[in-house]
Each structure stands twice: as C-alpha cells, then as structure tokens.
Amino acid sequence: MEPGHLRHFHEVAGQKSFTKAARALRVSQPAISKTLKILEDAVGAKLLYRDRRRVELTDIGRAFYERTTRIFAEIENLGRIRDEYLTGCAGELGLGASDNLCNYVLPDVLGGFCKSFPQVNVKLLSGTSGDIKAQILSGAIELGMFYTPLARDERAVFHADAIGTVEFVCVMPGRPGAQKNRQASPDIRALLKTGLRYIGSRAADYRKAYPALKMHQLLGLNPKVYIETNNQETQKRLVIGGHGYTILPVHAAKDGLLAGTLVKVGTSVPLCNPVFLVRRRAGILTKPAREFAAFIARRKIPLSQ
C-alpha cells in the first residue's frame, strides 16, 4: 500500500470524479485507474463504484477516505512546520527557573521572546536548582535559569553561562504605612546583636554555593539562629510578619520596601549575584532553545531592572 496509491484514491474520492482527479494530480486518467486497481487488490476489497455519471464510495472506501483525509492533513501540517523552521522558529521551548526568577524576571523576558517568536510554545517549570538540573537530565526541559553556580563535579555534565547580574538586599521587618525615609536602616552587625533570626535556606547542598549564605560569608557573618526555607516568597512573608531578617533579590523586596513593610539593612559591601543559564553538555539544543539563549544573552540591562 504505497502513499502515492493512497493519494490517487483520496483525490478521486474527494472529487468524486476520475477526470477531475487526473487533472488535479496532473496524470492521465488510465494511470489513476491502474493505481486504484493495485490498491484495491492490496486491500482485498472494492473501495469505490464507478459508472459513467458518478463515483460512489463503498463502506470500506468511506472508512479509508476518513483516514486519508487525516493523513494528508497531517502531511500538510508537517510542511508548514518545515517552512516555519526554515523561515523562522517554531516548536516548544522547555525552560526551568527558580521560583524567584519565574515570578519577577521571566514574565518580561518571556513577553519579549514570545513577541519575537510567536510560533514557539513555552513550557515553564519552577523549582530549586537541583530540581531544574534533574529535569534537564530527564529531557523534560532543555534550559534552566538559577542563581547557584555549578559544582565542580557537575561541570562535566552541564554547561552554564552567566547571563546577567541581580542585586540583592538585606531586609528586616518594617512598619506598614511608615514613610520609607523615616524608617531606621541599621547595620547588619547591629541587627544580629538583637538576636533577630536569619530566614533562608541552609540545606546541605546550598551551604557552599547558595547566594545568601555566600553573602553572609562575604560580610564575615555566621547566623546561629534561623528559620530554614528555600522559598524566597516565604522568606519575605516571614520577615514582614516580624519573624526575622533575610537577603532577597531587590526585585523581590521592592514592593515591601515601598510599602514600608520591609526595611533595608545596611551592609559594608554591595550584594549581588549572577544568574546562570544552564544546559546539558551532551546533545544539540532545539532551535527554540538556541533562539532563547541568544535572545536573553542580547539583553543589555541587569535582570533586576
């Protein structure tokens, strides 16, 4: 059962005419008759009846026609997909990112990307850097975005590019409704003397590389009392509730600082951290993934803005 035989049958069934089908396919009418005879012999049943005035499908012929309609519609779709890939970009982008980047950075980034590549579907997953790396290895996504640098033993499996820098800020509970410039901005060392808890992640896999803990080391601090959570929105809510202090990307703390529910704590050095775009070393990225990597690399402003 050859595709060409099915094409001839489909055209005759749709046109209900051998003459019109031959004209559409640019072949002779005897050639179509011969092809249909070969197809019917292969099927073992008659697919259509023909007389001088009309062509009628048999029951099995109608079933065949329903399916050839779907088959050739899909073939046309494949042609469109081919054209989109040759002239633009289409398909699916599988992307993972930390919760904070999903909430505050990617909405603007993906808005611009989707406008530039309207034929690309985006699958966005959020989670920790460990979750994202596992999803990349499983093939569920191709690219990941997070703050934590790769460990030495991971560099043989993953490749990471720094794609921007995010400013971080240390914050403590504020007084809702108070004017921003009238709230005290204590030094972090003075803050720790009050016994205020640190709120953030202290998980074993983060202790050497997690940005907030690296910033504590940079400041020469080692908080002893803490509430452990790796979700930055939860950290912010706990601080607003008066339960401690934390270090957040400035875009995550901005609304609280403006509302007075958070107060910036002074630090001796600026706090910042790169954002990494991570992919698996083995294999070739799809075109949507390559275009996204190039798109985000072209951004000229810090990702915190």
In words, what does this structure look like?
- This protein is α/β, with parallel strands linked by helices and 305 residues long.
- It folds into 3 domains: 3-87, Arc Repressor Mutant, subunit A (Orthogonal Bundle), CATH 1.10.10.10; 94-159 and 277-297, Periplasmic binding protein-like II (D-Maltodextrin-Binding Protein, domain 2, 3-Layer(aba) Sandwich), CATH 3.40.190; 164-273, 3-Layer(aba) Sandwich (D-Maltodextrin-Binding Protein, domain 2).
- It has 12 helices and 11 strands.
- The protein has helices spanning 3-15, 18-25, 29-43, 59-87, 99-104, 106-116, 129-138, 188-193, 211-218, 232-240, 250-259, 287-297; strands at residues 48-50, 55-57, 91-97, 120-126, 143-146, 158-173, 198-200, 226-228, 246-249, 262-264, 271-280.
- The strands form 3 sheets. Strands 3, 4, 5, 6, 9, 10 and 11 form a 7-stranded mixed β-sheet that branches. A two-stranded antiparallel sheet has the order 1-2. It has a two-stranded parallel ribbon with strand order 7-8.
- Helix 1 (3-15) crosses helix 2 (18-25).
- The longest helix is centred in the N-terminal third of the chain and has 29 residues, at 59-87.
- Residues 179-183 and 203-207 have low confidence and may be disordered.
